[in-house]
Amino acid sequence: MKLTDIRDNEGAAKSRIRVGRGIGSGKGKTGGRGVKGQKARAGVAVKGFEGGQMPLYRRLPKRGFHNLFARELNEVNLGRIQQAVEAGKLEGTVTIESLVAAGVISKAARDGVKILGNGELKVKLAFEVAGASKAAVEAIEKAGGTVKILAADASQA
Fold it and tell me: Where are the domains of the chain?
């Protein structure tokens, strides 16, 4: 074998098509771009253009707004917390870290945890969370526990 004998396998490298090089090539004249007009030229991107008609995104009314200060909270029901207590995964003070460790919420622990009142809590627990519904606070205090609402971080605002 010699260096001059080395070459690619048959069909391994496709030769590029030279566009716009005569009618006999099959890619001559318009060069695969159709016929005339703006899109036949180079450097054209007309997204949303409707030929001079008012485009759809301008015909429709604007609606709603995006709240920059909204907090995205994980929501946990009391019934789910009771299940974790019965499984021996939660006890004492309930914080976002203890809920992640117990597997009640996922590791993508957003801006905090809000406790909701669905379900029944049978044990005394102290909660340190970002929020809690009125029903949840009543149920926790009825079971002898406490709820401490943490202030939102200034860095997240």
Answer: 19-43, 74-156
CATH code for residues 74-156: 3.100.10.10
Q: Is 75 helix (H, G, I), strand (E, B) or coil?
A: strand
* Contacts for 95 with CB less than 8 Å, ≥ 6 apart: 128, 129
Contact yes or no for 126/104 (Cβ under 8 A) = no
Q: In degrees rounded to 5, what are phi and psi of residue 133?
A: -75, 160
Q: Does the model's pTM come out above 0.70?
A: no
φ, ψ (nearest 5 deg) of residue 114: -115, 130
User: Per-residue pLDDT tens for 21-60?
Assistant: 999 998 998 888 888 888 888 877 778 888 889 999 999 9
Structure tokens at 17: 């098509």
